[in-house]
């Protein structure tokens, strides 16, 4: 048996597993990503020809494979959100982006600098790589398929999904800052790069990402729902793969204009929803994107598990492990809680939102992306060990706890809605979702 033969068999098993596992583990303290990760870790132990997985030496294909997975998941997240865009409606999102995100980066960078004794650029890179959240790896904590109601999303699922949709793109300026610092200062500290970073990497590229997403979303919204010729109106034909066309078009055009394509994809998806919010074609596109996303995620987690099984964690030090545990158990929960003080969410909802800062595929992309053109005066294997360990702990921790925790919140909302005199004994989905816990 050749490696190609085994790869075909593995791809087939992974595709079937991506279809079956979510249903098997639904409602249980287990997640499909965790199963895929464990299966991947077992692969190196099997007496079969398995190529060595080296994300350092094979950085380019790792970067592009994770890049595709991230942009597909961003399109799915944007299409799933029912709540119209707005300053007050999205207040939980702005809090998590404006308070939790910078505080998490600062605390993680300082911890990496102090515990690992890494240069400032490497410490900032680690913090920037680990700040994006990824509800793809725990589907229970993200919103479900799009519906025709604007108010049937509970605060926890909405906050985590919208946060992940935007902070995957907003991590780019932080990674760019780490790369610029490394290029300008090596192992020291220099401020010569700050002006260019503020004007280009932060301001220009973010604006182009948002404007590009709005423009592509508006154009596709017209083409999907309003174009005069019926044969050109894509919503009439129910072809879900069109969502991939929207994803790649928004991403590619924005990147050509030197903007942040991640931001553009999510904004495009949100703009498409607003073009005809109650149309059933959104569900068709979302379901197709979700299927592709599950396939890509399953494959990447199998590869990550195999990478772990081949010994990457041998480069992990106790200091690196402590940075990971501090991020997941202290920094993210604390900064997430602080950001929500005074918000509309109840105390239980704030606690759950703060805890589920899931790390995943986005972190793998950003690390492979940054290690291409720049050196950070830290062995790449050490950086990969800390990031891979963080994703591993997050998949296990959040995968095991997501289903029981979210199910508990759902039961409490239902019970409170039934006891609410304003809703009656048979509350609808909107009345249940609007209960604050």
Oligomer: single chain
CATH class: Mainly Alpha
SS class:
mainly alpha
In terms of DSSP E residues, the strand content is: under 5%
By DSSP, the count of extended strands is 0
Helix and strand string, N-terminal first? HHHHHHHHHHHHHHH
Helix content: 55-70%
Distance between the termini: 56 Å
Number of domains: 1
Account of the protein in words:
By secondary structure, the protein is an all-alpha fold. It has a single domain (3-433), classed as Na+/H+ antiporter like fold, CATH 1.20.1530.20. Helix content is 69%, strand content 0%. The chain has helices at 3-25, 32-42, 59-80, 91-116, 120-130, 155-185, 194-225, 242-256, 261-275, 281-309, 318-340, 347-355, 361-370, 380-419, 429-433. Helix 3 packs across helix 13 (361-370) and helix 6 runs parallel beside helix 12. The longest helix is centred in the last third of the chain and has 40 residues, at 380-419. The chain is globular and about 60 Å long.
């Amino acid at each position: 048996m050749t490696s190609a033969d085994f790869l075909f068999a593995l791809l087939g098993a992974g595709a079937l597993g991506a279809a079956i596992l979510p249903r098997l583990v639904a409602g249980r303290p287990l997640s499909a990503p965790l199963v895929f990760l464990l299966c991947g870790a077992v692969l190196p132990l099997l007496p079969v020809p398995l190529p060595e997985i080296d994300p350092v030496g094979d950085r380019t294909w790792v970067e592009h494979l994770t890049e595709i997975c991230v942009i597909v998941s961003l399109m799915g997240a944007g299409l799933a959100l029912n709540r119209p865009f707005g300053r007050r409606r999205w207040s939980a999102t702005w809090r998590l982006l404006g308070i939790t995100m910078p505080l998490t980066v600062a605390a993680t960078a300082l911890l990496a600098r102090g515990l690992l004794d890494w240069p400032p650029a490497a410490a900032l890179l680690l913090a920037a790589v680990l700040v994006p959240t990824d509800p793809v790896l725990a589907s229970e904590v993200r919103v479900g398929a799009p519906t025709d109601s604007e108010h049937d999303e509970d605060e926890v699922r909405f906050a985590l999904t919208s946060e992940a949709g935007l902070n995957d793109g907003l991590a780019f300026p932080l990674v760019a800052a780490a790369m610029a610092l490394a290029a300008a200062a090596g192992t020291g500290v220099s401020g010569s790069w700050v002006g260019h970073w503020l004007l280009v990497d932060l301001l220009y590229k973010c604006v182009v990402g948002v404007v590009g997403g709005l423009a592509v979303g508006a154009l596709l919204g017209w083409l999907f729902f309003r174009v005069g010729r019926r044969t050109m109106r894509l919503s009439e034909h129910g072809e879900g793969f069109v969502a991939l066309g929207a994803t790649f078009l928004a991403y590619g055009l924005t990147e050509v204009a030197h903007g942040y394509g991640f931001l553009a994809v999510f904004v495009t998806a949100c703009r498409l929803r607003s073009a005809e919010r109650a149309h059933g074609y959104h569900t068709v596109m979302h379901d197709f994107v979700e299927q592709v996303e599950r396939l890509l995620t399953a494959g990447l987690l199998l590869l990550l598990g195999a990478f772990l099984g081949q010994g990457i964690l041998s480069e992990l030090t106790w200091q690196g492990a402590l940075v990971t545990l501090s991020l997941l158990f202290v920094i993210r929960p604390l900064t997430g809680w602080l950001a929500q003080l005074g918000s509309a969410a109840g105390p239980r909802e704030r606690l759950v939102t703060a805890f589920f800062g899931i790390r995943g595929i986005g972190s793998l992309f950003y690390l492979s992306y940054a290690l291409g053109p720049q050196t950070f005066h830290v062995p790449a294997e050490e950086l990969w060990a800390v990031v891979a360990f963080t994703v591993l702990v997050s998949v296990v921790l959040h995968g095991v706890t997501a289903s029981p925790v979210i199910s508990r919140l759902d039961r409490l909302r239902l019970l409170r809605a039934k006891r609410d005199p304003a809703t009656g004994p048979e509350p609808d989905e909107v009345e249940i979702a609007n209960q604050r816990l």
